[in-house]
Amino acid sequence: MTAAVSFTNSPARPGRPRFGEGAVIACDNLVRIYKIADLEVVALQGLDLLVDPGEIVAIVGASGSGKSTLLNILGGLDQPSAGRAIVAGHDLGQMGRHERTLYRRRIAGVIWQQTARNLLPYLSARENIELPMILDGARDRRRRALDLLERVGLRDRAGHRPDRLSGGEQQRIAVAVALANGPAVLLADEPTGELDSVTSAEIFALLRQVNSDLGTTIVVVTHDAFVSEQVRRTVSIRDGRTATETVRRTEQTAEGEHRIISEEFAVLDRAGRLQLPKAHVDALSLRDRVRLRLEPDHVGVWPDRTSRHVAGGDPGPSSSAGAVPPPDPAEVIDAREEDER
Ligand SMILES: Nc1ncnc2c1ncn2[C@@H]1O[C@H](COP(=O)(O)OP(=O)(O)OP(=O)(O)O)[C@@H](O)[C@H]1O
Ligand SMILES: [Mg+2]
Fold this sequence. Notes:
Elements: E1 25-36, E2 39-51, E3 56-60, H1 67-74, E4 82-87, E5 90-91, H2 97-107, E6 108-111, H3 115-118, H4 125-135, H5 141-151, H6 167-179, E7 185-189, H7 197-214, E8 217-221, H8 225-229, E9 233-238, E10 241-252, E11 258-266, H9 278-283, E12 290-294, E13 299-303, H10 329-340
Parallel strand pairs: 3-8, 3-9, 6-7, 7-8
Antiparallel strand pairs: 1-2, 1-4, 4-5, 9-10, 10-11, 12-13
Bound molecules: adenosine-5'-triphosphate and magnesium ion.
């Protein structure tokens, strides 16, 4: 079940698609502020994200960057403070209680890192898988639960309770539970965080299998470099915003061999904002403000050497090289052409 997203209050300009059109997940300027007493933590600060139906996307980012906050909102467990998140046609900030309950039951299947959070300890594997179907009043539950056990390779563990299953087996069952009501999206928050690398690879292979067999859209948060290398698109979050995207594609060489090309892009939001990678900022000691120049096919970014705010304080008009404004590259080119004439 996959419905496309549309932002009804943002009419498309003629000839231009609406933001989020055709996407199954569309986050538009998403903000989440946690308030504890007088303290405010801005966990998401204007995050934009589009995910197409049938995609599998990895989300990476430092601890505290907002990954779980995003997944909690997409899973219908938490609400944005501002901005919008639409999943399969459901506006997550506008849902009433009843719609939210149905959304969590039918639209978003969630898998958590903590194996214990995914399964009820006193139910068998099969009963755990049947539970969401019972809550949804689905029929033919036994057969579907056994099919799902087959899919995750644990048909012979149907009667085992979670404490009789390994960590990897518990996560497989968690995948089956999340799939029980045929969700449009599967959200996994570090599903392999408690597993060894071999078992992690197996769980991830299962997620990819589910994605290709059932066409379920999957968003998986991970610290595991192996996992993020296995998907076509990895989105990195920094300080509550999408910072970069790495896109992988396979290319055939002249010798007929396949090689993987991996390219990193900065994400430009709808207001034209982008985050420069920290390494770039550090390498040129960029701060406060930068000079931008539009070139025929790119935009250049230069440190502002005239700024009073450059490291070391006010350099004065002639005190250092840092006080000299960078030459306008266009002027440099003009001067060179002058010399050549
Ligand atoms: N319930 C909450 N109340 C207050 N602050 C919170 C709450 N949940 C998260 N935060 C804060 O929001 C920020 C983002 O947290 P989040 O859990 O989304 O990070 P994360 O990227 O998932 O990190 P990790 O990789 O460690 O799981 C952090 O600064 C965190 O302390
Ligand atoms: Mg987290």
